[in-house]
Amino acid sequence: MRPPKTTPMNPQLSTFWSLPTEQVLQQMHSTISGLSRQDAKQRLSEYGANRLKQKHKSSAWMLLLNQFKSPIILILIFAAVLSIFLKDAADAIIILAIVFISGLLGFWQERGASNAVEKLLALVQVKATVLRDGKSQEIPTEEIVRGDIVVLCAGKNIPGDCLVLESKDLSVDEAALTGETYPVDKLSGLLPAETGLAQRTNSLYMGTNVISGTAKAVVVHTGKETEFGKVSERLKLRPPETEFEIGLGKFGYFLMEVTLILVVLIFVANVYLHRPVLESFLFSLALAVGLTPQLLPAIVSVNLARGAKKMAKKQVIVKRLPAIENFGSMNVFCTDKTGTLTEGEVKIHSAVDVEGKESVGVGESPPLGVASPQATRVLLYAYLNAASESGYVNPIDAAIREYKTFDISGYQKLDEVAYDFNRKRLSILFKKESTHLIITKGALKNILDVCSNVEIVEGKTIDIADQRQKLHQQAEELGSRGFRALGVAYRDFNQDSFSKDDETNMTFLGYLALFDPPKPGIADTLKELQLLGITPKMITGDSKAVAMSIIHQVGLPKPKALTGSELEKLSDEALMHQVQQTNVFAEVEPNQKERIIIALKKAGNVVGYLGDGINDASALHAADVGISVESAVDVAKEAADIVLMEKDLNVLVEGVKEGRITFANTLKYVFMATSANFGNMFSMAGISLFLPFLPLLPSQILLTNLLTDFPELTIATDRVDRELVNKPRRMDIKFIRNFMIVFGLLSSIFDYLTFAALLLLLQAQPEQFRTGWFLESVISASLVVLVVRTRQSIFNSKPGKYLLMATLATIGVTIIIPWTPLARVFGFQPLPLNFMLVLGAIVVFYVTAAENIKRVFYNHVKF
Fold first, then answer.
1. Predicted model pTM
2. Which of 95, 200, 343, 695 is the most exposed place for a label (fewest CB within 10 A)?
3. Which pLDDT does position 362 carry in this prediction?
C-alpha cells in the first residue's frame, strides 16, 4: 500500500483565519452542507487518516526484526557468522538456528498480543459529528478529512484545525495548546494574517475541546499538519511511563550491569588461560544471552494483551496497556457521585419557594397541583429555561421537562447564554407580549451571587442582603435530606439580545430540590473495594450536606469531608496530609480535582480517577489510572487509560482483579529469570575458570536457554493465588534483588554440587559432563518454575494447565535429546543409569530445598 501523500494546498490557507469563509470553502472544494461520502472516502484514501502518527500496516516484519535488536544478540549473530568462515561451520549454524527459533517464539507471542489490542481499541473510538451529503452523522475522528464540516457542542474534541463558520456562545479550552487557563470565546469573522495563535478567535485547533455552546466549522488541516501535530512532531511526545514500566527499566539496567561485568571477566579469564579466542568469545556471548531475560518484552506484552482481553469480557476496555499494571497497583480510587455511587438518573423531588414551602414531592401524590403559588412559578421558570436550552445537554434539564409540563407557547426565545463550568449558570432571554425576561438557573451559590433581590410573593421583592443566611440554611436543610438545591432567578430586561455580563441585579425566585438515589448494592461494592485494599474517595461539586447524606447511605465508615473553599486555603504540603484522612471532597471546583489527585500521589498512593465530564480531563491525565465510561464526553474518553462500557463499580472491581492477575503473572517471569536461570549461567561462568574444557559449548548454552524459556511462554495462562489478588502490589526492585540473591545463590549451590558429583563421584568425561550438566540445569530450572510461581506450597497451589503441560514437555524433550540424532549435532551422549540416578537425586533435593527456602524467605521478607 502506498503511503499517504501531502495534499497540494493553496499557500493562502496557511493563514486561513484571514480569509472569508466562502474563499476557504472554495479552496477546500467543500460546501456549507459538507462533502459527499464518495469524496470523503477518496480524500481519506489519498491523503491518509487523521492521526498524529500514521500506523504502519506492514509492521509484522518490523516486529520480527525487533526480536533481534538486542546488542548482545546482534554481536552473537556476527560472531557466529564469522566462525563459519574461520572454523567449524556446524556449531555456528546451530547457534544461528536457535537464536532464530527464540526470535520466532517472541514474534509469535507479540504479534498475537498486538492484534488483540487493536480489536479492543476499536471498541472505544472517539467520534466526531460531520455533515456528509448534507446529513449529520458520527464517524471516528481518524476518518475526518480536509473540507469536512464538523458540528460541535459541549464536550466534543476539536478533530482538526478548523475555521468557524457559525457559532453560538462557543467557548473552547485551549490550555493544551496555548497554556491559557481560561476558556476562549470563539466566533466567525476575519482576522489579520499576522494574528497570534492565542488571539485567533475564529479558529479551532486539534487537541482542544469545547466547553460550552455550539458551532459548525470547516476542517482545514488534519493530522501532523495541524498546530498540535507540529508540536508533537517536534517534541516527539510519549505518554509518561507507568510505575511498573519504570520498575522494569530499573530491573533491566541492573541485570545489564551484572551481565556485562560477568561476560567481560569470563572472556578475559578464558583468553588468559590460553583457550581459543573465538570459542571463548562465543561462550561469553552465549552466557550473556542466557543471563539476559530476552523474553521479558514478549512476556509483558502477552500478559498485558491477555489481561486486556479478559477485562474486555468484563466490560472494561484498556486503551493503554501498561495502565493495567497500575490498575492492579491502585490503592486509592476517586470517583464522582452521579451515576457511580448513585443511579445517575436525576429526578425532581419538588420546587421550593423562599419561605420553604414546597410543591408536591415525588412519592407523595401526582404533581398535578402545588402547595405554593411561588413554587409553581419556580417550576414554570425552570421549565421555560430547560425546554428552551440548546447548548450543553444535561440530565437535569431532562428531569425538569419530565417532571411537569407547562404551556409556554406565549413565550418567544430571543437569546441564550449557554451553561459553562465557570459560571455554572444557564440564562435564556424570553419575550412575552411586550415584556422581556431573562430566566437563569444553576448552582445555588452562583445564582445567589448575581441576585440583588428576593421575591416573597409575585410582584413583591425585598433586598437579598438580610435574607442570604436564611436562604443558605434552607438549602442546607434540603441537603441534609439528600436533596441537591438548584437556584432559579429572573430579571426584567428591555433588549432583544444579551450577554453573560447582563447576569446581574437578578431576583431570586426559589429552589429546585433534586435527588439521585444510591445504586442498589453500591454499599456492598464499596466494601469489596476496601477488602481489595482500595480506599474509595468521592469528589463532587455538590454541597457538603448532600455529599455526606449520600456517603452515609452507601455506608462508607467515618466519613471526613473537605470543601473546595477549605481546600483553597491549604498549602500543597498541608493538603498532602489532609487527603490521606479525607474521603469526601465536596463543593469542589473543576480545577481543584487535579490538585487533589496530585496530592494523593505525592502522599505515596497509586491513584485511580473515574470521570466522564468536560471538567474531568485534567484529573484523568493526572491520575495513575484515568478511568472513563463509554457514554462520556469525548475529552474525558480521550484522556482516559481505561474505559468502562458500563458506569458500574462492580465492573471496576472485576477489572482491578484482572489487573492484579496480570501484574502477578508478569512478575512470575521476573522471579523465574532471576532464580534458576540466572543461577545456572552464573555457576557456568564460575566453573569455566577451573575446568580444562568449556562446561557447555555455546550451542548447548543457547539450547538450554531456549528449553528453559519454553514453559515461561505460558505464564500468562497461569493461575494466580487469591492472596496476590486481595491487595495492591507495586514493583519493588529491592525485593526482586533479594529474591535473585537468595534463589540464585541456592541454584548455584546445587549447580556446584552437580559439578562435584560429575567430576569427583562419577569421573565424567567432557561430553558426559556437558550432557549431565545440560540435563540437570534444564530439568531443575523447569521444575523450580512451579516452586517460585507461588508463595504457597507447591502442593497447595496448582499451576495452570498449559504451564504444567509445557514444563512436563520440556523435561521429556530434555531427557530424550541425548538418545536422538540431535545428540551428535549438539555434542551430547547417552548417560549410564548411575549418572541418571545421581542427577535425579540432586534435582529432587534442589526442588525440596527451594520449597523450604521459599517458606523461610516469605516469612522474613514482605512484599
1. 0.69
2. 343
3. 44
**Where does the pLDDT of residue 4 fall: very low under 50, low under 70, confident under 90, or very high at 90 and above?**
very low
Q: Would the pLDDT of 791 be above 70? A: yes
More confident residue, 389 or 60: 389
Provide the mean pLDDT of the chain. Answer: 82
Tell me how far apart the alpha carbons of residues 675 and 164 are, in angstroms, rounded to a whole number.
63
Is the dihedral angle over the CA atoms 734, 735, 736, 740 positive or is it negative? positive
The three state secondary structure string of 555-602 is CCCCCCEEEHHHHHCCCHHHHHHHHHHCCEEECCCHHHHHHHHHHHHH
The single residue listed with the C-alpha cell 567430576 is 759
Binned at pLDDT 50, 70 and 90, residue 71 comes out as low
Q: Which of 35-49, 255-269, 699-713 has the lowest mean pLDDT?
A: 255-269
Q: Which residue has the cell 431532562?
A: 398
Any idea how long the chain is?
Answer: 863
Strands 561-563 and 209-221 turn out to be: unpaired
Q: What are phi and psi of 434, to 5 degrees?
A: -105, 5
- Residue 169: active-site member: no
> For 585-603, how does the pLDDT look when each residue is reduced to its tens digit (9 = 90+)?
988 887 789 899 999 999 9
Look at residue 474 and give its three-state secondary structure.
Answer: helix
**Grid cell at residue 684:** 557456568
Q: Which candidate in 91, 148, 169, 336 is catalytic?
A: 336
Q: Please state, in angstroms and rounded to a whole number, the distance separating the CA atoms of residues 156 and 146.
A: 18
Cβ contacts of residue 858 below 8 Å, gap of 6+? 791
Phi, psi of 381 (to 5 degrees): -65, -40
Rounded Cα distance between 87 and 756, Å, is 32
Angle between helices 590-602 and 572-581 (to 10 degrees): 80
Confidence of residue 94 (pLDDT cuts 50, 70, 90): low
The pairing of beta strand 561-563 with beta strand 584-586: parallel
Q: What angle in degrees, to the nearest 10, is found between the helix axes of 89-121 and 277-291?
A: 20
* Continuous H helices in 122-187: 175-178
184: part of which helix (H) or strand (E)? strand 184-186
Dist CA 784 CA 645 (whole Å) = 41
Reported as a single tens digit per residue, the pLDDT across 20-49 is 999 999 998 899 999 999 999 999 988 888
Grid cell 502518527 in the structure block, residue? 53
Q: How confident is the model at residue 185 (pLDDT cuts 50, 70, 90)?
A: confident
How many angstroms from the chain centroid is the CA of residue 262? 39
With CA atoms as reference, report the closest residue to 686 among 676, 697, 675, 694: 694
Measure the N-to-C terminal CA separation of the chain; round to a whole number of Å: 51
CA distances (Å), 170 to each of 154, 186, 215, 333, 580, in order?
8, 5, 7, 34, 39
CA angle 582, 587, 592 (to 5 degrees): 75
pLDDT tens-place string over residues 757-790: 999 999 999 999 999 999 999 999 899 889 989 9
Q: Are 550 and 335 in contact (CB under 8 A)?
A: no
